[in-house]
Amino acid sequence: MIAGLYRPGTSAVHRTRASAKLVALAVFGTVLLSLPSLWPGLIGIGLVGLGYVVARLPARSAFAQIRPALFVLAILFLAQLWLEGLAPAAILVLRFAALILAAGLVTLTTRAADMVAAIERLLAPLSHLGIDAGKVSLAISLAIRFIPAVAAVVEEVREAQIARGRSSSTLALAVPVIVRLLKMADAVAEAIDARS
Amino acid sequence: MPDDAAPPTIAIRHAAVERSGRTVLSDLDVTLSERRIGVIGANGSGKSTFARLLNGLILPSAGAVSVDGLDTKRQAKEVRRRVGFLFQNPDNQIVYPTVGEDLAFGLKGRVPKAEIPPLVDATLTRFGLAGFGDRLAHELSGGERQMVALAGVMIMEPSWLVLDEPTTLLDLRNTRRVMAAVAALPQNVVLVTHDLALLDDFDRVLVVDEGRIVCDAAPAAAIAAYRRIVG
């Protein structure tokens, strides 16, 4: 759900309400996980693939959604293969792949502001439990916004470490990244205060 | 109560700021009402703290700061609506993934929903960003991002704009672009900067040194005083 970010478009998928897409995603995931056979996963991937076609998104956009998860999916597949056999391993991986692709489709075709507004509406009834839907939705939009910013910080620090001959040190990478991210968090909080 | 008929005025009365037991600013007693005010000083002199004092991001430990009659301690929200703030790094100021969404951020709940898209479009056009509404902020150049951050502040129509070293991360072309946009603003501007050339046309320049305003004069005299201080 995080690799893509919104790609502008006018397709039917783009025009569908954000809340409808989020509910459909929840239903899709629930159905997919509750049916213990290979076919739901295959049909699910087919449906999501159709969604990408209708949304006029290129195949590389779909691949970009699944690529970061390939390593984890491979480990899951091998673990399940060893523990349960080929069919359960295939079912598990197909389910996750379909879910990741579906979440990516929703992200790619929904403006963050619309998604956040939909989440805010869906969470509104929880205000009786003391949950501030506005704050939750702002946190979600910030998370989406700062994924590339955090990636840029990691890359900058990594390059600086390589330049100083410490290319393989996880600690040398983690400490300055965490320090910079904490400073960035302070600055962002200050900027939100200034704009609110 | 603010007097909207009176010219915009920021009044700092006997203000001091302490942070972690250290005095960052002291003996501040100054009234700001000119349209273009510059603030200069060495690193760590207290310039940025001074800037944050003006819109209530930092509150005085002693004394008071008021904007158009509104006290920054007691009326912080109203003060922040009147004083827009542009930070050095636009990456920390842009909170939504796309440009249009970010401009709409401050309007939410204050402007009817239907009025937001045309207002966003008009503001983008005004700041030379027409067609940028759907662009991803992280894919823009540094200069474009700073213009987006400026547009995000100005869409709220503050009466003051405080800028904290807004051109430090920009090249000459983008520095000129941002400063041309700032020069065209009808609002009162307080610019904190190390780029002394930006202050040529300003009405007044304050020099901050070791937490105090040590010179308050026209640009030429203030810059000369600053040069003497830094040696």
Would you give an account of this structure?
The complex is a heterodimer of chains A (196) and B (231). Chain A has 196 residues and is mostly helical. In chain A, 78% of the residues lie in helices and 0% in strands. In chain A, α7 packs across α8. In chain A, 23% of the residues are buried. In chain B, the strands form two sheets. In chain B, strands 6-7-8-3-9-10 form a six-stranded mixed sheet, with helices on both faces. Chain B has a four-stranded antiparallel sheet with strand order 2-1-4-5, with helices on one face. Chain B is globular, with a radius of gyration of 18 Å. In chain B, a hairpin with a 2-residue loop joins β1 (10-19) and β2 (22-32). Chain B has helices at 47-54, 76-82, 99-105, 116-126, 142-154, 172-183, 219-230, and strands at residues 10-19, 22-32, 36-40, 62-67, 70-71, 83-86, 160-164, 188-192, 204-209, 212-217. In chain B, α3 (99-105) runs parallel beside α5 and α5 runs parallel beside α6. At the A-B interface, α8 and α9 of A face α3 of B.
Mean pLDDT of chain A: 85
Q: What is the overall number of helices of chain B?
A: 7
* Most extensive interface, chain pair and sizes: A-B, 24 and 28 residues
* Oligomerization: heterodimer
- The gyration radius over C-alpha positions of chain B equals 18 Å
Number of domains of chain A: 2
**Structural class of the secondary elements of chain B?**
alpha/beta
**Beta-strand content bin of chain B:** 25-35%
Count of individual beta strands of chain B: 10
Largest sheet of chain A: none
Give the structure's gist in a few sentences:
The complex is a heterodimer of chains A (196) and B (231). Chain A is an all-alpha fold.
Key descriptive features of the protein:
heterodimer, A: 196 residues, mainly alpha, 2 domains, 9 helices, B: 231 residues, alpha/beta, six-stranded mixed β-sheet, four-stranded antiparallel β-sheet
